[in-house]
Fold:
Amino acid sequence: MSNQHLDTWIQSVAAHLQPDTIHICDGSVAERDALEQQMLQTGTLLTLDPGRHPRSFLHRSDPSDVARTEHLTFICSEKKEDAGPTNNWISPAEARTRVWPVFAGAMKGRTMYVVPYLMGPVGSSYSKVGIEITDSPYVVANMRIMTRMGKVALDHLGTSSDFVKGVHSLGDLSPERRYICHFPETRTIWSIGSGYGGNALLGKKCHALRLASVQGRDEGWMAEHMLILGITTPTGEKHYIAGAFPSACGKTNLALLVPTLPGYKIETVGDDICWMHVGEDGRLWAINPEAGMFGVAPNTSLKTNPNAMKALANDVIYTNVALRKDGSVWWEGMNGLADGEEMLDWRGQPWKKGVSTEKAAHPNSRFTVDIRQAPSASDRIDDPRGVPISAILFGGRRAKLTPLVYEARSWEHAVYVGATMVSETTAAATGAVGVPRNDPMAMLPFCGYNMADYWAHWLAMGEKLSRPPKVFHVNWFRTGDDGKFLWPGYGDNIRVLKWMVERIAGGGKANETPLGHVPTQDALDFGGLDIPAARQQQLLAVDPAAWSEEVARTGEFLDKFGDRLPAPIRAQHEALKGRIKAR
Ligand code: GTP
Ligand code: SPV
Ligand code: MN
Structure:
């Protein structure tokens, strides 16, 4: 079936980028195999030991191209105010004169791949089609895992013009000529100069978050940077929970959690992105628009995340991990290296355990794998209706201040809690690591419009929910005076989920604090953990003096939004100030 809108657009892009040939991807295994062979020949992919890593490959990206580049990412709305104070903005007219010319002739001597992809389950009314044009076969191979790619997407599209148009070229990979531009009004993406992750796999952050967040606002649904998991309790009670943590702050790990408490079962629906709609039953219903995981490799081990390790048994693309002499992959936190062992680091340079001072794997090295390969994969991943959400988690990486968990007091308070999230920066984006910054709903780099309007949309969604989810804030990363994590995290996070599920059922003891409801020390299951009572107390402590400084900083952040800040957010801010003062 031909699609006239698609054909016309492909021709117009080809006329400007001037590829040697055009390849329309069908998503077949034969196509994948041929692309892999070609990438092995050009060195884009390296082979791994076929016994240890069947049908898996290593890719080393350009050393200047290893993470998202937020300062080169733009929202090109007609009006600057619509991008808001937290986004970089250039006008569509300026993008046309400054950025589009960089694409001129960019695909000379290259093949232009046309990648049709479906975000969301096949047959779902919530699913959306995008077409990514790219000159990177590595991007094609990743998109084939990360999305439902090829014929299936074209079938969903039919003759419709309703698709996101993405144009991607590696260009010359120079950060000087790197731009990631989003046009929410025309649902178009232009990305040039990077082949890495969220910069280049346009279905992910560019489409499923930046453009989808705008479309969701217009159409009354939500596009969020959230994992989705299912939890079954020992008594057979079942809930689905969505969780927004900033990049490299624990979504994949929580989604694949192996409980340390007996009788609990966790299933994985999604690990990064979540689209939510209001169901006829007044609940929020969520789908995972993706089909794969582009997961952080470092610290993934059989101890921390056995389900991820098992998912990596075969058919994986590794990016920027280290390569051992036996043809297996390695990264920091995997352990099992003998002192003095030599291998190749993520750049391909010799590296020696105990001698080399640099990391062997890049801190933002990643694996790309089909999410259905996780032993915890839910049988609802492909359910066109999605799953009903009982709770939403907001979470950050905070060495100080923020308790392990607290529950918001109401939907309006919950929106305030999400809006005022602060988290320490990570290697997922270029720039300094470990610096606390405001990251509302973990969407700071991903909201395609004015963040104040986004909060208004959250508030409006709450009005439509007769059965809103409970909302919690978590922090796995609080440290003690010794600088060590107070909380074991990973599989033990089930203990926090256990308390949440009790709260959902109307139980779970809590103390009322200025922040919200914090579990009493005896309400959290510390059983079998070697955490002294004093450290338990530190984990849950709310220090009014420190919070009063935090609230002052939050006030400065909220002031950036001027008149656009929704009144209920301001009211919640004043109320929190009052509660802290009253302590
Ligand atoms: P993106 O894919 O960038 O959006 O990240 P993510 O939110 O999925 O983060 P991920 O689960 O990959 O975790 C990032 C890093 O945090 C990894 O190195 C994890 O090992 C580490 N991490 C995850 N959960 C925990 C936890 O409960 N405790 C501790 N200490 N570290 C954790
Ligand atoms: C993130 O940075 O939040 C990621 C990785 O999930 S990327 O696909 O590069 O955005
Ligand atoms: Mn992410």
